């Protein structure tokens, strides 16, 4: 039998009838993404609690996006994350209640509002983000910068296609 994507022998694994090499590659991708996503969800929960003990894990990504964009409409955030308006409204309301975000009238459209991080929200988020980045640096210390950049590029490409 052949080697899997990690170079390990698959001689002890029964080969699925009719499965092509591409199928094995996509099955390996699915397996690795499942592990990665499970760990990422657990890490998001930890990071959310570090920002604020009452912060929902799913809301951590909102802080990431708002730090990146500066401010955004709630509807644009909902589209970006692929969630409904009601879900986004609930998450933003919770973040407002914790003092991490605020809403301001949109100067381009008085009926809409822009969401942005508060000074406290920005400070808390950056402290946690910087600590997380240091963990990545330690975990990937034996990778060269080109490998890290390639992983980031491929993940970005995957995320961009997932949004379609």
Please characterize this protein's 3D structure.
By secondary structure, this protein is mainly alpha-helical. The protein has helices at 21-51, 60-69, 74-81, 85-97, 119-139, 145-162; strands at residues 71-73, 101-106, 109-117. Strands 1-3-2 form a three-stranded antiparallel beta sheet. Strand 2 (101-106) and strand 3 (109-117) form a beta hairpin. Helix 3 (74-81) crosses helix 4.
Quaternary status: single chain
Indicate the proportion of strand residues: 5-15%
Q: What percent of the residues sit in helical stretches (DSSP H or I)?
A: 55-70%
- Count all strands and give the number: 3
Q: What does the largest sheet look like? A: 3 strands, antiparallel
The strand order across the widest sheet is: 1-3-2
Separate helix tally: 6
Please tell me the overall pLDDT.
87
Task: Give the low-confidence spans.
Answer: 1-12
Overall 3D shape: globular
- What is the structural class? mainly alpha
- Beginning-to-end CA distance, first to last residue: 37 Å
* Order of helix and strand elements from N to C terminus: HHEHHEEHH
Rg over CA atoms, rounded to whole Å, is 20 Å
């Amino acid at each position: 039998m052949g080697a899997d994507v990690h170079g390990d022998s698959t001689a002890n694994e029964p080969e699925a009838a009719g499965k092509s090499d591409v199928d094995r590659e996509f099955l390996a991708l699915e397996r690795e993404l499942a592990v990665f996503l499970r760990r990422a969800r657990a890490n998001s929960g930890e990071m959310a609690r570090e920002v604020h003990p009452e912060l929902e894990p799913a809301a951590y990504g909102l802080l990431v996006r708002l730090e990146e964009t500066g401010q955004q409409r709630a509807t644009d955030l909902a589209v970006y994350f692929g969630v409904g308006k009601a879900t986004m409204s609930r998450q933003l309301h919770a973040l407002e209640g914790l003092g991490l975000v605020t809403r301001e009238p949109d100067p381009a459209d008085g009926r809409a509002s822009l969401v942005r991080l508060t000074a406290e929200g920005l400070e808390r988020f950056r402290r946690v983000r910087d600590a997380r980045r240091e963990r990545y640096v330690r975990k990937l210390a034996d990778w060269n910068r080109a490998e890290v950049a390639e992983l980031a590029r491929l993940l970005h490409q995957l995320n961009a296609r997932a949004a379609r």
